[in-house]
Design goal:
Elements lengths: L3 H17 L7 H13 L3 H13 L4 H10 L1 H13 L3 H23 L1 H10 L4 H14 L4 H8 L8 H7 L8 H7 L5 H14 L5 H10 L3 H14 L8 H13 L13 E8 L4 E8 L3 H16 L5 H14 L16 H8 L1 H14 L2 H14 L2 H4 L8 H5 L5 H14 L8 H13 L14 H20 L11 H10 L3 H11 L5 H12 L5 H18 L5 H12 L5 H13 L4 H10 L4
Antiparallel strand pairs: 1-2
Length: 600
């Protein structure tokens, strides 16, 4: 936002422009040059005024692009301002100008009318062909559909030689649409696409070419594909297409610079072959998850090439979770019935989820790790959860992950699976469950950014249920007593009634006097609701049955007093009586209870 001084300068400059209008009308070129001039000499106050004047005039993006191309040093100056200026206001205005220039570049590059004209110009004069080639190179991937249309048009056979010659000169940006076009039925045009990919020479074509070599019905096209592979990398001739697609998918997943989308606005293109229209079509997607979507497509092609290539499933799931983590709505070609990543993950099964989790742990990617762990928690038993990948067990590694949501989810998953075989990380399971129960873990980011109260409440409840399950099943591996302190606190002070009840229930399975006294304190707490107290008495009865009476006499007397009080509600007295009976007290106590109620 402009400060007061800059606003005044903008108004002042505006008045000057209006006043001078009778003598000479200001142009976009004047404002652009003055912006650059005052930026260069350090008069940032005036530079901001002229920058604002340009933006308020809503100039034609293509015209501003032309001005920037006429003065490349000025364009570089504007870029330096954005990257290095300490004047945040000027940097922001300069960035808006550069964004406008980029919009102009995109419009010029992708304009169909211009592309079609330049393709025709390839077959004119030598100079015309040279200029057209340069402009088609600038158009990049946007030129490919129109070039292929022309190549497949019988009425344009006279242009075919020049188009074929130019096709590989488009370079790396042509590869994605050309690779998609390999699904066409026109064998003649397809042959030229295969040749062009070989001449362009980038490894990202290898998987697509090998798929043709392995699957195409035409012996001629299979042979051409092998020849193109040899041009790019002879070592890949014997590599299976499934493996090559997986390798390409990993490069997309890790945002390999050689696979970056064509320069332009905030969108990127994913190309498809429309079999009905026999034509390339593009889907605009947000650049934030372009690489992840392409990784998913590579995995899909890997599975098309070899159904049993399971590594592609783990990478596909990781890519989907990673794409969802951007917070951007999924692309339109994911129709309304397309399930979210977690649905596919829970369907996939533990083997592939461990691949996904192992990758996420190594990459320290919290969003992907959390997705994999939550899916494992849904559908995996002990044997599946403790799956080993090489020397590592991904889920056990997740217990020490930097993101608390991942740690907590891993602990809950293991606890709910009810492991019966000892493992070194069992203490970490209880430690994480205890942290989650009372929300007192170390300050750490979660996969969603800020750790919210809603997340804390959700994990506390899930941890409470997991701890209770360990107690009910008398789990021999995970030492529930390590969570005693957290359970005692939760039974007294948790703001969630359900957690207070669950904590007391769980304490009943810990064979310590402290745990039993904690349950009794919860039951005797007159500030608690009746329902909480009744539940606590039920838990006390269970504790007495499991661990015998460990209460001090004073606490037993307090319970006894409740039994004889007519001011206590009947159902609460009944619960207290059941607990009292379960304590299996000496005959003297029982005698007193009988005589106290006697009428004669």
């Amino acid at each position: 936002m402009l400060n007061g001084r800059t606003v005044a300068l903008v108004l002042f400059i505006g008045c000057l422009l209006v006043g001078a209008g009778f003598a000479q009308e200001r142009t976009l070129s004047d404002d652009w040059n003055d912006y650059l001039h005052y930026t260069k000499i350090g008069r940032f106050d005036l530079a901001k005024g002229y920058a604002q004047a340009i933006l308020q005039g809503k100039p034609d993006a293509g015209l501003l692009l032309s001005l920037s191309q006429d003065n490349p040093q000025g364009y570089e100056l504007a870029m330096r301002v954005v990257e290095t200026s300490r004047d945040a206001e000027l940097a922001n205005l300069s960035k808006q100008l550069l964004d406008l220039i980029e919009r102009g570049r995109f419009q010029r590059r992708s304009e169909p009318r211009i592309i079609v004209e330049e393709i025709k110009r390839l077959s004119t004069t030598i100079r015309g062909k040279m200029n057209a080639t340069t402009r088609l190179q600038n158009a990049g991937e946007y030129a490919i559909p129109y070039m292929l249309d022309a190549m497949g048009d019988p009425s344009r056979q006279a242009e075919l030689k020049n188009i074929i010659e130019t096709l590989p000169k488009i370079g790396r940006n042509a590869i994605r649409p050309l690779a998609a076009a390999l699904q066409m039925d026109d064998a003649a045009v397809k042959a030229e696409v295969i040749r062009a990919l070989g001449r362009i020479g980038y490894p990202q074509s290898l998987a697509y070419l090998k798929y043709v070599a392995e699957n195409d019905a035409s012996n001629e096209l299979r042979t051409l594909a092998i020849q193109s592979i040899r041009q790019i990398d002879p070592r890949s001739v014997n590599a299976p297409a499934a493996a090559l697609f997986f390798q390409l998918g990993e490069k997309y997943y890790y945002h390999d610079e050689s696979l970056a989308p064509q320069e332009g606005p905030a969108i990127a293109n994913i190309w498809f072959w429309d079999a009905n229209a026999s034509r390339l079509v593009r889907a605009e997607v947000n650049r934030a998850y372009f690489h992840e979507l392409m990784a998913m497509r590579c995995c899909e092609w890997s599975l098309k090439a070899e159904e049993q290539f399971g590594l592609a499933i783990g990478l596909w799931l990781a890519s989907f979770f990673k794409a969802e983590a951007t917070g951007v709505a999924m692309p339109e070609y994911f129709d309304d019935n397309h399930a979210v990543a977690l649905v596919y993950a829970t369907t996939a099964g533990p083997e592939y989820l461990h691949q996904t989790l192992g990758r996420a742990v190594n990459d320290r990617n919290a969003a992907v790790a959390l997705g994999a762990v939550e899916a494992l928690a849904t559908n995996a038993g002990e044997k599946s959860l403790m799956h080993t990948m090489g020397p590592a067990q991904p889920l056990l590694q997740a217990l020490s992950f930097g993101d608390r949501a991942v740690r907590y989810s891993a602990a809950i998953a293991i606890a709910n699976a009810g492991p019966r075989n000892a493992f070194n990380e069992s203490r970490l399971v209880v430690q994480n469950l205890a942290e989650a129960l009372n929300g007192n873990g170390q300050a750490a980011s979660s996969s969603a950014g800020t750790w919210t109260p809603q997340q804390a409440d959700s994990y506390a409840l899930r941890a409470a249920n997991a701890l209770l399950k360990l107690g009910v099943t008398h789990n021999p591996v995970i030492d529930l007593s390590l969570a005693e302190s957290a359970l005692l606190d939760a039974s007294k002070v948790s703001p969630q009634t359900e957690i207070r009840v669950l904590a007391a229930e769980t304490l009943a399975y810990i064979a310590s006097a402290t745990a039993q006294r904690g349950i009794a304190e919860a039951a005797l707490n007159t500030e608690a609701t009746k329902d909480v107290r009744i539940a606590a008495f039920d838990s006390l009865a269970n504790s007495a049955k499991v661990n015998a009476n460990q209460l001090p006499d004073a606490m037993v007397d307090q319970i006894y007093t409740l039994l004889g009080s007519e001011q206590i509600e009947p159902d609460l007295r009944a619960a207290a009586a059941a607990a009292y009976g379960a304590l299996n007290l000496p005959s003297q106590k029982v005698k007193e209870l009988i005589l106290d109620q006697a009428k004669s």
